Amino acid sequence: MSLPQDRQLLRLTALLQLERRAREAEDAAALGFLMVNDTHGIVAYRQAALWLAPGRLAALSGLAQPERDAPFAAWLTGLLGRIAAAPGAAETQMLTAANAPKAEGWGDWLPAQLLWLPLAHRGRFLGALALAREEPWTEGERRLLDLLASGYGHALAALQPRRARRAPRRPLLAALALAAVVGIGLLPVRDSVLAPAEVIALDPMVVRAPLDGVVEALHVRPNEAVVAGQLLLTLDPRRLQTQLEVARRAAEVAEAELRQAMQGAVADPRARASIPMLQGRLEQQRAEVAFLHEQLARIEIRATQPGIAVFDDAHEWLGRPVVIGERIMQIADPGRTALEIRLPVADAIALEPGAEVRMFLNVNPEAPVPAELAFAAYRAQPGPDGVLAFRLRAAFAPDAAPLRIGLKGTAKLHGQEVRLAYHIFRRPLSALRRWLGF
Questions:
Q1: How far apart are CA 1 and CA 9, in angstroms?
Q2: Residue 87 domain-assigned?
Q3: pTM of the entire predicted model
Q4: Which residues are bridge partners to 57 per DSSP?
Q5: How far is Cα 107 from Cα 112, in angstroms, rounded to an integer?
Q6: Is residue 69 situated within a structural domain?
Q7: Which of 276, 298, 320 is the last residue of a domain?
């Protein structure tokens, strides 16, 4: 066998192997990479591009993924799109800057010769493979590439999603479907909304600091049961004891000065005149001593009712300075609880006292707890998370088992009767209104 025949046989073998690999490609991206890079094993070229209808540059030789916004990619996409729109796009063409449509800048981006290989399957134009080099294309190379393009088109069509058949237009059915949708949208339903909620104590005793000081000791633990009169916490008495000692010494001095003035009042008119002032000073010092005694008696804070102590970790309070009126803990009756709900302003709906509420606890969401709306704040206030929300309170049924204070979950509140369409599109319409600014 002669040398040219050997080369031709090797080229045909490579063609068959390339077609097989194309049909075994996993997806369109892998197929496009194979087209622009591995076709070089059949014929030599410098650049290759895969253009897919209706106007997308899918692959470039030497690149894993083309940058469509890059100058070369944008220019090449426009050129290939114009070639595809020109007559004869469904046939193989050999193009140059002279016969290509609107090919300004060809010399800056492409070699002199461009071969346009359309990719089609069963008469449907899918795109084209463009190969560029400096040397003109031979007739043998063109025929060989035509065969390869046919295999590429078949493989590309197999990887593209099948187009669904268009259903025949049925105006009557469309009108009936529209009427059914409108009718369903007009069905009356009860409006509802979801909001975070927490189980709180009902009418708890709030333990506040009776005076400025420092917490010296806590005598109860969090969630510990206490009885009326039990010692809860003690404030540091040292500052008050020091002030009391100073006030006592001042009272003793004032008393001694008054006694001395009374002894000399018989002979000394000035001593007689100073007696009222010294008596007033002594009374003031005695009042100061009595006040400090009263303050010292208040450093021990006791419970005024039975319940459980609700507060944070005891170690966070030890040694912590407090001001008068600052809340330290609560004494709550575990059998008297309520539901506190924070309804965000964006989700607010019309609610009336007595509205139905269902609490879905985080610890047991499958067993909702019924409740009834008892209170709704008139104004919204920012919460700990910074969200502006209305504060609501709901009461559990009298015969319901009391829930543990501090349990959290999601409350579903039922409002007035509205149309189903309004219930579904209420939040999107509200967001659209805020976005449009009216």
A1: 10
A2: yes
A3: 0.46
A4: 51
A5: 7
A6: yes
A7: 298
For residue 181, is it within any domain?
A: no
Contacts of 342 by beta carbon, 8 Å cutoff, 6+ apart: 195, 196, 197, 383, 387, 389, 390, 391, 392
**DSSP assignments along 374-403, one per residue:** EEE-SS-EE-TTS-EEEEEEEEE-TTSPPP
CA dihedral 276, 278, 284, 286 (to 10 degrees): -110
On whether both 220 and 270 belong to a single domain, the answer is no
Same domain for 10 and 148, yes or no, is yes
Q: Are residues 320 and 407 in the same domain?
A: no
- Residue 63 makes CB contacts below 8 A (sequence gap 6+) with none
357 and 414 inside one domain: yes
**How many domains does the chain fold into?**
4
Predicted confidence at residue 48, as pLDDT, reads 93
215: domain range? 204-234+302-331
Say whether the peptide bond before residue 54 is cis (omega within 30 degrees of 0): yes
Of the two residues 98 and 268, the one the predictor is more confident about is: 98
Stretch 322-332: mean pLDDT: 89
Residue 69 sits at φ, ψ, to 5 deg, of -90, -5
Asked if residues 91 and 166 have their Cβ atoms less than 8 Å apart, the reply is: no
Task: Name the strand (E) or helix (H) holding 173.
Answer: helix 171-185
* pLDDT one-digit tens code per residue, 231-254: 999 999 898 888 889 988 988 888
What is the torsion angle, in degrees rounded to the nearest 10, for the CA atoms of residue 392, residue 393, residue 396 and residue 401?
A: 110
* pLDDT tens by residue, 153-200: 888 888 876 654 454 557 788 888 888 877 777 777 778 888 899 998
CATH number at residue 224: 2.40.50.100
Query: Residue 176 falls within a domain, yes or no?
Result: no
Q: Examine the domain organization and report whether 265 and 381 are in the same domain.
A: no
Among 48, 49, 22, 13, which residue's Cα sits nearest to residue 144?
Answer: 13
Do 107 and 23 have their domain in common?
yes
Distance CA 32, CA 21 (A): 12
Indicate if 324 and 338 belong to the same structural domain. no
CATH of the domain at 390: 2.40.30.170
Q: Which pairs count as long-range contacts for 348-353, CB under 8 Å and 24+ apart, including other chains?
A: 348/193, 348/380, 348/390, 349/191, 349/192, 349/193, 349/413, 349/415, 349/416, 349/426, 350/191, 350/415, 350/416, 351/376, 351/392, 351/413, 351/415, 352/415, 352/416
Task: Answer left, alpha or beta for residue 47, where phi above 0 means left and psi between -120 and 50 means alpha.
Answer: beta
The CA distance from 392 to 197, in Å, is 9
Helices (H), 229-334: 238-264, 269-297, 314-317
How far apart (Å, rounded) are the C-alpha atoms in residues 91 and 435?
Answer: 52
